[in-house]
Amino acid sequence: MGTATGVYHTSYRADLALRHTRAEYLRLGLALCAVVAVPFLVSPYWLTIVNQIGIAVIGAIGLNILVGFTGLISLGQGGFLAVGAYTSALLAAKAGFPFPLDVACAVLATAAMGTLFGLPALRLKGLYLAIATLASQQIILWVVTHWDVVTGGTSALLVPPAQLFGWQIAGDMTWYWVIALCAGAATLAATNLMRTGLGRAFVAIRDHDVAAEVIGVDPFRYKLLAFLVSSAFVGLAGALTARYNLIVTWERFTLDVSILYLAMIIVGGLGSVSGAIYGAAFMIAVPVWIEELSRNLSGLAFLQDDMPAIQQLIFGLTIVLFLIFEPRGLARIWQRMKDYFRLWPFRY
Amino acid sequence: METFIQLSINGLSNGAILALAALGFVLIYKATGVINFAQGEFLLIAGFVIWFVLVEVGLPWFAGIGVAVLVGIALGLVIERLVLRPMVGEPVISVIMVTIGLAAVLGSIVQIIWGTRPRPFPDFIPAGSVELFGATVAQNRLWAIGIVAVALVGFAVFYTRSRDGVAMRAVADDQQAALAQGISGRRTFGLAWALAGISAVFGGALVANLIGVSGGISSFGLLVFPVVILGRLDSVPGAVVGGAIIGLLSSYTGGYVGGGLETVIPYMALLAILLVKPYGLFGQVRIERV
Lengths: 348, 290
What we know:
The structure holds 2 protein chains of 2 kinds.
Chain A: H1 12-16, H2 22-41, H3 44-69, H4 77-93, H5 99-117, H6 126-146, H7 148-151, E1 157-158, E2 162-164, E3 167-169, H8 171-193, H9 197-207, H10 209-214, H11 219-245, E4 247-248, H12 255-268, H13 273-296, H14 307-325, H15 329-343
Antiparallel strand pairs in A: 1-4, 2-3
Chain B: H1 2-32, H2 39-57, H3 61-84, H4 92-114, E1 129-132, E2 135-138, H5 139-161, H6 163-173, H7 175-180, H8 185-211, H9 216-222, H10 224-231, H11 236-257, H12 265-276
Antiparallel strand pairs in B: 1-2
Helix pairs in contact in B: 1-5, 1-8, 1-10, 1-11, 2-3, 2-4, 2-8, 2-9, 3-8, 5-6, 5-8, 6-8, 10-11, 10-12
């Protein structure tokens, strides 16, 4: 977050602070106001979209810890989401676990599973790791669709509505607050994580693994920890998907979902917590927005038939164009906008 | 014994097609270091173009192959120039994601032009069945093996005999040294993508011949990864052996074990190989490890 003229902190406390300037506190306040105001401003349909975005934010932050901060490429996001969703759904539906407990168990289970499938990362990196996690994705999904006795195979799994202290969490409005709370906690946790030794070890491994090992960062340990921490976030996202939708089907966790999440963090900005938020909102809202646009504008009505293909086309183009023209994503664009106004009327 | 022979022929023919698909993948990786997730969509486009020329336009099959080859070359060149060249020197994740994005774009363009309805592929190789060692074997499977063998020999001759082929091997071996010899890197990169487009035409035609013209062709392309990991990412003979192993493995699993295990067994083999011998069955130890 360097500014054009340098950083003038005079104490470690100030250097470690999450927010440095009054403008940053102001923006935080505005963002909080927006979070409180959103459910009252949007239509009921868009509230479901906003809830999906909230869940995706948690998953995208998790993936960004692994890919953006530690530099380990994972195509297994969909599989890990499935582990979280199915664990939570099964514990709630078949074992009768009360609401927050099944989610907590799902987080633990996904973290364990993520660590297990992270084992290849100890020997591999770069594209070999990408292919290994692709295999994990296919294997997890295969188990989900073929382990009929437990997961119900390819048929949908129904989840009972969540209850907290005898009070039923139902409806998009109530869920909005639950999801916003979880997403806020995840954001805060991830931002703070990057100030700790653990987070810095992740970044050290990403920037140069050999150098990291030389200065005493054990790559074996921290790569597995990265998988563990990241999968815990993903497990939370998966569990919330299950409990919010009241139904779990395997189609929600295919390779396409893994790619969607990778697209989120690339469009948002690799290695940036706020980037994961921008990316999740962008990649989920844009397809919906395009569909609404084509439905409302009569001149575009002919696009209706090909809508899934057009959404996919724009999805692919977004990834390609961002990578070619702004590889550091929306977070970088936002940073440049802030710099522009801060320095105005000068260019630098 | 009958089942065994049938399964072997099925496995080998699937493996041969996989090897051909993997060849395009290996060509690109060898010359440019790019891992092409859009290889399945290359096959898909080739399948649809041939189907279109043969069935909708009504030209003979060699015209269909010819048009598809031209489309494949053009596609490879355009993609290399517009998408991959700006990506030179970018981190691995960016290069992987750009080809994934490309796969989405190509897949959706096919869907916009031709829709999602699966079509039967015209019989351009004899269907029927023949007796072989006492087992009934589909004739098109034997043809598939033969066509792949011819195509692979063709590529091998190009690689060892032609000027461009030798230049490509030089670039793959040592890029700096090759450039210092006056070999054009751009030309070689373009050529690698064009060749991948051509190999996709044969692969696409054969896949479409087996499973029909539909989006399923591109998911077939995903099976390329177990093949190339088994054989080594940059080895052409490795792709052939890897294809045969994966083809036979899933064919035997499907025949003797069943239960859908055959769809996932290639990936299990992939993970096992990566954990035990990450540089593939035939590779020398060059993988970077930390």
